[in-house]
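Data deposition worksheet. Section B asks for the primary sequence of the deposited chain exactly as it was used as input, without tags or linkers unless they were present during the calculation. Section C holds the resulting structure in token form. Section D is free text for depositor observations; keep each observation to a single sentence. Incomplete worksheets are returned to the depositor.
Section A, Depositor: J.P.
Section B:
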Amino acid sequence: MSLKVWRFACIYLVPITLALTFSHVLAMSRKLQYGQALYASVQHTMHLYFASVGARAEIAAVVCLTVLCFLAPSRRNIFRLALGATICVTAGLVVWLAVVAPANAQMAQWATVPLPNNWESTRRHWEFGHSASAILHLIGFGALITSVLLSLIAERGAWSRVGHMD
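Section C:
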């Protein structure tokens, strides 16, 4: 596949992961104020499709970004930005696996109120884990877009020089 296809895939997938994690950031301040019953209810009803969509998108984004690094033009800045995007999005996935997934596993066992004594700690891990992932995804998305723009400018410059050779 061409570099343009991989760029498109990255520009398509990385914002999906950013949107999902950032939506948690937007809701966090209110959800941290919820009591046990409301928080458990929201967790069991509002986020049903986040895992199925988010997991696929995030893994696909990491794969596509990795490929993009191998295909990136040899210009140092473009490669470094693509690598930075790959590292940030991968780190976001690692944070999710290390912090959010264990909290998800605990929350999945919350069938009735009262919740376990450590429920607020679990909630903090879940909420702040998503926040950390969102920050990493935001930085990664910025690096990706900058690398693509620099690459397009470099390509355009090459085409402009070719056009002036008449």
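Section D:
DSSP finds five helices and no strands in the chain.
Residues 3-163 form one domain.
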